[in-house]
Design brief:
By secondary structure, chain A is mostly helical. Helix content of chain A is 71%, strand content 1%. In chain A, β1 and β2 form a beta hairpin. Classes of the chains: A mainly alpha, B alpha+beta. At the A-B interface, α7, α10, α12 and α13 of A face α1, α2, α3 and α8 of B.
Amino acid sequence: MIAVLYARTRRFVDRLLTRPRLDLPLVGALAAVAAIGLVTLYSAGDLDPGLVLNQGARFVLGGALLVLISRIPPSTLRTWTPWLYAISVLLLVVVAVMGEGRGAYRWLDLKVVRFQPSELLKLTMPMMVAWYLHPRPLPPSWKHMAAVGALIAVPAGLIAEQPDLGTALLVAASGAFALFLSGLSWWRIGALLGAVAGAAPVAWHFMHEYQRNRVRMFLDPEADPLGNGWHIIQSKIAVGSGGILGKGFHHGTQSRLEFLPEHTTDFVFAVFSEEFGLIGVCVLLALYAFVIGRSLWIAMNARDTYSRLLAGAIAMSFFVYVIVNGGMITGLLPVVGVPLPLISYGGTSAVSLLTGFGVLMSIHAHRKLIET
Amino acid sequence: MRPRRRQRTAIKDARGEAALFRRRALTGFALILIGLLVLAGRFVWLQVLHHDEFSTRSEQNRVHVVHLPPARGLIYDRNGVLLADNVPAFRLEVVPDRVKDMDAMLARLGALVPLSDDDVKRFRQQLRQHRAFQSVPLKLRLTEDEIGRFAVNQWRFPGASVVPYLTRRYPQGEGFAHVLGYVARIDDNDLDRLDADRYVGTTHIGKNGIERQYEDILHGEPGYQLVEVNADQRVQRVLETVPPKPGRNLYLSLDARLQRAAEQAFAGRAGAAVAIDPRNGEVLAMASVPSFDPNLFVNGIAQADYTALLEAPDRPLLDRALRGHYPPGSTIKPFLGLAGLEYGLRRPEDTVLSTGEFFIPGQSRGYRDDIRGGQGRVDLVQAIAQSVNTYFYSLALDMGIDRMAAFMGKFGFGRPTGVDLPGEGSGVLPSSAWKRGALGKPWYLGETVIAGIGQGYWVITPLQLGHAVAMLANRGVDRTPHLLRATQNGLGAPLVPVPPPPAAPGALRNPADWAPVEQGMLEAVNGDRGTARGIAAGFPYLIAGKTGTAERYSRTTDAYESRVSDAELAARHRALFICFTPAEAPRIAVAVVLEAGAWGGKDAAPIARRILDAWAAEQAAPVVAAAGDGR
């Protein structure tokens, strides 16, 4: 019995080493970002090992999911796609009807685990768009473009209604990227953007007061230096005072003296910039750029339309996290609750990101055998 | 045909699609790189070009914001007697961010300052609702002992501190608990509806009664302080203070003396009394007995105390005046008498023979009078004065239930009065439409008969009854009962009167119809055969009233039981009394409901008399209290 088990494990390990399903450069880059994340957390959490261990455990869980999902062929994922999408939208509706949370209804309490169904959409949304476009002729016609628009708008609207603007934005973007990559003609993209811009005043009308405040504050943060603007000003001071070389590990004063809010979660990038300076920032941004570039390369070598669009959308969504969080802490973009990927403290985000990269790895493992 | 063509196209374009994707992916990557470069550029702008500026600001960054919650407005009665104020107290707060191991800290702290399970539970609940850097209250109302012990050991508990605050106090205790309500810690439900910016630093919110109804006025606007701190977070200097704006003080129409008299008159027996000034709808007293001490709730009631209040058989938490549901009994007879005149079914001089039993033509069930053998031949005045059931049985039968409901509805029965208190009960005004809607059953004639004496499906709240009596006293002019009389922007400031709700004239077709009904109510109190005779003895004004004795359970037998003790009757009856005085120009209307009383005239009327005595004493010697200086 044990011998059989050993032999199987041995064979599995051998295969893993000789024919790696994982794209090692990408895994290496992700591991490097995660390591930077743990170091930053250790400092931002005031040298609390519990925080680092917690986050480490999530990385292990996420890594295990990554390996597991990488063994599922994309064709199987594709057949599951409509169901996965339907289930996640259904869960969103359930949460809207009976969810619990502090003013914001986004959590589903399954007694064992509490999670946000909106998190599922970050993956099932690009899967669904890719699934829809897969058998259709590309670039998509007006009709298909409208259908995809509906597939995106319904869940995004439900999430924005929760209200969770940040996640709604990420989910909508992941679907939109798949559409973009499908080769939608430029003037149609222009028309789409025009429509979105035209819808902005309507959206403003339906926004919650705190969301409007965030937009107002974004336009002029210094006008309200005590309320919402306080975060942005303190964050900019943290970044700016870091300089080129940074103040050094655990020497940032902004978070130490508690001027920075949420300095282990949404504003962890500010702590990183303060302590590791412009050089650290450039290294981190380069790592992110590499992760995105490598993922797009995997997408280009994918076997079919579904895999291509899905991989490309995952890669580009990753960029949205980076730019929205980076833009927020430097005062370029409004304060929207989007974490810095693999650095911010928090379970759901780390696990769902690594799950996405699991899909990428699966696509990589089932790539075209002959380069064209 | 079309799908096949599409299929072919798709296959044919596979290579082209791959190339298209490649172009798009490269374009996308180029855009992403531009985005990342812009972001990097922003970092260069902040970290290189403006490094010196931010560096200086970082070094000088010693300024913290301290939120200053506003003081809650005070509440006074109409004469300036203090009903709710704020007293200084101390509480223990914890900043979660600065605590490494919360469980261990709480355990150590608990050894020093006793923490109840409720405290810890509530604290943990609030932890989840606050940001990590926000201070969360752990224990309210510390004793001096606890403050001392903690102060000596404070260095062992980074993140924990003793903070002064103002806590609500209700000096009148039980007497005003229901009508005033109370404040308590903000919970999940409150968070959903309140404006977070206005409640920074505020821990309490009105949960009930006036405290909840006028939360907006009482709360005020928060202020803040910019303070300079050193590296240990100790405040060095106050840079700027924007003081909070305290909430406005409220002056209620309630009269503490009347309220006290009402409460004492019940002597602990369950019931409710409402006194209204019919001239303007001001509620003078609104008592519900038994009551509870609202001060218990302010700083978090212990679970055991709360369970005891919830499970007490006489339900002290129920506001009987506002939400208690009772059959009105014979107190509706004056209104029904008016309806008979209004519909032209009776003239005042028409008489009915009371034989002790009334039968619907063709039916065998008997409906009883109060006295075996009946009260003889009576007109409207005597029917009201002696509360003769037969008169109203036959009147109700002639009128029909729906006409009765339409007329009674004019006096506000069957719907909330619209008083300025949350959660008012609406009672039940029976009609065939109501029964079909609520019970899905048709209306029976026998039900009309017992509705004529305020039994059956009839349900009123004491406030509703008080409102109806005030309307009666005022000859039909409808003034919504209300409690808020004036507000005040800080002690000593002039009172700003709150305009009373507009009056809706309620017209009878023939104004002469009021006289016989009023005469009946006068006779009930002052006549030889009145059901409330004797209760006006020695009272300086003329009282008009009507008794009511309602049965809680339907009888199983129609037989008279003459030798039943009052105690046994009290277990079966609810005693009611309504009245107004001075009869010629009414200035106060009272409704009393006693949950367990043998007879309205014997048990409920004396309670009303005690309230009227307190009122009359005040008319003779008005309370002199300078407005704005309640103490």
